[in-house]
Amino acid sequence: MNRSGLIITLIMGCLAVLLWKVVNAPDMEPPWPTKIQGFSFSPFQAGESPSKKIYPSVEQIDRDLSILAGDVHAVRSYTVEDNLAEIPRLAAAHGLNVVLGAWITPDKEGNEKEITKMIKVYHENHRNIVRVLVGNEVLLRTDQPLEQMLRYLDRVKKSVRAPVSTAEPWHIWLQYPQLVEHVDFIAVHLLPYWESIPVDQAVDYCVMRYNELKQAYPNKEIVISEVGWPSGGRIRKGAVASPANQAKFLRRFLDVAEKNKYTYYIMEAFDQIWKKELEGEAGSLWGVYNDARQPKFEFVEPVIRIPHWRELAAISIALAVIILSLLFRDSKGLLDRGRGFLALIAYTITTFAVWMVYEFQRQYMTISSLLVGFVLLIAATGAILVILAEAHEWAESLWIRKWRRLPQHSPPEAVPDADLPMVSIHVPAYNEPPDMMIETLNALAALDYPRFEVLVIDNNTKDPAVWQPVQEHCKALGERFRFFHVDPLAGFKAGALNYTLRETAPEAEVIAVIDSDYMVEPNWLRALVPQFADENMAIVQAPQDYRDGNESMFKAMCLAEYRGFFQIGMVTRNERNAIIQHGTMTMVRRKVLDEVGGWAEWCITEDAELGLRIFQKGYAASYTPYSFGKGLMPDTFLDYKKQRFRWAYGSVLILRHHMMAMFGLERTKLTRGQRYHFLAGWLPWFADGINMLFNMLALVWSWGMIVFPEHLSPPHIVFALLPVTLFFFKSLKMFFLYRSRVTATRRQSLAAGLAGLALSHTIARAMLTGFLTRRIGFFRTPKNAQANAFIKALGDAREELLFVIALVLAIIGIMLRDDSDMLDVRIWVTVLTIQSLPYFASVVVSLISGLPKLPAKLVGVMAPLKGLGKN
């Protein structure tokens, strides 16, 4: 890292610390009273649950009460089941009063046993039992009708001397005035979080509801039997659950309660993990003390959103410095703006990652949450790596002083004919239209180069009417042109190229390859072959370019999409001698081609695989971003997909075959920069594969939310942030780089983005298939094919259409949930909407390809491909 990079890193680090500090500025809140009136008390610990009939031991209950002793006047119990019946006796030993509760359910027989036992417990411990509650939110849950509850209340009132009531939310008391007539006091629950009240309004809201009850029933004592705020859980509109908000609410409420002389019971003393099954994450996090019986916030000191923010800030800064030390390793030509951009991205990512881990670890871990956490970690790591790779390319494309290895846009120095090596041009073909191939051969015949030959290899074409006209035309063009028809010939395109390599003239020093549809410029060889004067130069590559972009809107879109790779990706890769060799407009030193064993017949992307093997030997490659030949694009979206499937599938096979070398575990001459660019270049495609798995899981989860709304809520918001962030970052990068480096118009940039997005599902299938199989037949990209009809175009995108339908139905179903207005539900709907866009793009692009009469001017044909010029 040079001095400029170090200064930028330090400045960004200081800004990051400042951000952490501002976000975590202390809030002065009223102090916790020396002794509060009451706690809701459930002594269950990890692994214990009333629903599973696993109850705490007497010793555990006693330890919990000893923690509260001296800090509270009374505790409220909820049931007398099992050892919980011992609470009054144990509380008395610690000087604590008790509000004794009986749990009422739809089971009348069970209720009779519970009430009978409660009365017995009361009589055995009446000295410290100050109130009795028959049931908790029974009417709210509709577990029993009002008439039955009145009978229970009347029965208990006759059996005990303490005041008797039942506990319900405020609106139930207002809804049932007759219930008030049968109780000695109103036991009301005031839980503003469940009512989606923001924390800053929550205490006033509780006071308002308390006064509303007081006005409605002026002659009844009101006891706030539950009041609290969870330290975690779903965001309910403006109600955010967090430790800081829990501290704010409770400390503010207690201050008001002491001043107004309320009788209250804080909900609750200890976190109850078992409630997560019933009420979600928030249900387990209402305790003032966590499951380890440690306080969750400060009782007197100022409230800080993240108390340990200094440690977290230090971790995020350390991670950012490590990332930047890697990003700045080879960045001498990068302008300070580029370094600043990378520093901003690195600090943003590490801050987010640290916050994400912090948020996630605040949950109580179960096997399912640990599994979710592991998946989240893998997804987050992948997303972060993709964003860093994309950001690095973004910075190097926009903010570099000078391209070190890029030939400038000026005529090359003339080289005497006698000093130019002989070139053997190989043209593989399979079942290609003869008229198209004749045009290709005529262009080759017009080359301005002294010594070359052209070898045409037609492999496995069955119909003589297809290959014989080409054979005859080669004869007519003279002895420089030789034609071979071989059937059968194994090895696909690589097999054909290896065949022609064996037939190549012995004096040929350079092998050039073009596809059968390419019409080359006369100066192609004369302009590029002189680069082989460097003995270490093994590959000289010119970009693929196309001449039929004006035929239709579909082809104009494809042309715009192709340009990004050749004017952005290949240029930045060339700076580190790490270009992707592609099988047309490429030249290879013959000696090197023989040294590495020719073309790999096991690989359907034999061109890229050959380039990697050549780099492993330590040879150099050069990329010239000027057009020296133009071919034809796929005519239909289906063919467009087949082509991209082949490229993506082949990349997985290459990675699998060369994995040890790619990760530096095998001794080769690959540089760090070359390994980085090959891996980073494939990362977005791997991300597409992972994204498809994410979409499948998202659909399963979403349909679970629809079918089981009471038990399944949206995934954690962090899950939503990852795909949304990645989508928008990649989209912004594409748009800005197209506008600046590809010199595309807004329409062309958007069209390129749409076309690229439409291939996401195809790439995802290819990547996943590549990990499961080792060989799929070579997909030839047809040229001059009959354009698809409109209906067939829909069929060509049938998988993507099914995904669109499934995602749209999931969105509609989720929006029909009762909690559809909650933030996490809306965010999840946003995620599903964004995830549907690539599939929707596929359907749209396929339909456009099925309407070949849509004119190219709707997009605008890209200007002729030129170099980037002088920087």
Automatic annotation (TrEMBL):
Family annotation (PROSITE patterns): GLYCOSYL_HYDROL_F17 (PS00587)
Transferase keyword on record: yes
Compartments, as annotated in UniProt: Membrane
Species, as recorded: Desulfobulbus oligotrophicus
Record keywords: Glycosyltransferase, Hydrolase, Magnesium, Membrane, Transferase, Transmembrane, Transmembrane helix
Name of the molecule in the record: Beta-monoglucosyldiacylglycerol synthase
One term of GO molecular function: hydrolase activity, hydrolyzing O-glycosyl compounds
UniProt main location, coarse: membrane
Pfam families xrefs: Glyco_tranf_2_3
Enzyme nomenclature, EC number: 2.4.1.336
TM annotation in the entry: 309-328, 340-358, 364-389, 685-706, 718-738, 800-816, 828-848
GO cellular component: plasma membrane
Catalytic activity, as annotated: a 1,2-diacyl-sn-glycerol + UDP-alpha-D-glucose = a 1,2-diacyl-3-O-(beta-D-glucopyranosyl)-sn-glycerol + UDP + H(+)
